[in-house]
Amino acid sequence: GENVEQHPSTLSVQEGDSAVIKCTYSDSASNYFPWYKQELGKGPQLIIDIRSNVGEKKDQRIAVTLNKTAKHFSLHITETQPEDSAVYFCAVGNNAGNMLTFGGGTRLMVKP
Amino acid sequence: NAGVTQTPKFQVLKTGQSMTLQCAQDMNHNSMYWYRQDPGMGLRLIYYSASEGTTDKGEVPNGYNVSRLNKREFSLRLESAAPSQTSVYFCASSDETQYFGPGTRLLVL
Predict the structure, then answer these.
(1) What is the pLDDT of residues B22-35, one digit of tens each?
(2) Per CB distance under 8 Å, which residues of B are interface residues toward A?
(3) Which residues of A78-109 are buried (b: 16+ CB within 10 A; e: fewer)?
(4) CB contact at 8 A, A7 and A21
(5) What is the mean pLDDT of residues B79-99?
């Protein structure tokens, strides 16, 4: 089955700096790559996703890049703010995300 | 539009007790899922239902049963709870994107 590894497990940045979280996956047939943000005591919330027909997608301060050859994708958050502090999960799926395999999560802390 | 709702929010059980976790969605999604979340292990799929009337095992189905009652509702049952089932349980539903509920925190003593 699919294996997803996510790094780093914790990340601390200063407010205004950029944060990058990386994930690798094993199944070359995977074609859907969402990122979720989970705040304390809440369920994961989708923040951005990308499909394998594009290499990069951006939405305001967040962006995701995909390298299908190397089987890795990354989340980039620019101009970080304290409210970006949360746990972020990458996931990998096929067939438009009906089945997802999740990475282990990254705890992002943005220091004011 | 409430999205995905789960009940209860929190539950304490003794070993051997049974309980059912309830999940409902109002987005008319065909697919629904149950995950458990343990520290440092991300989200692991317990069971899923691709459509009303069908259910399939995920990565960690042992000790659980599910029922897809109708298109809106998907319940998870623990017949004889064990301390290893202490976890946070999330229900999700999907069209092309998975949407998660707020979770049920379960403590088995």
Answers:
(1) 999 999 999 999 99
(2) 4, 31, 40-45, 48, 50, 59, 90, 92, 94, 96-103
(3) eebeeebbbbbbbbbbbeebbbbbbbbbbebe
(4) yes
(5) 94
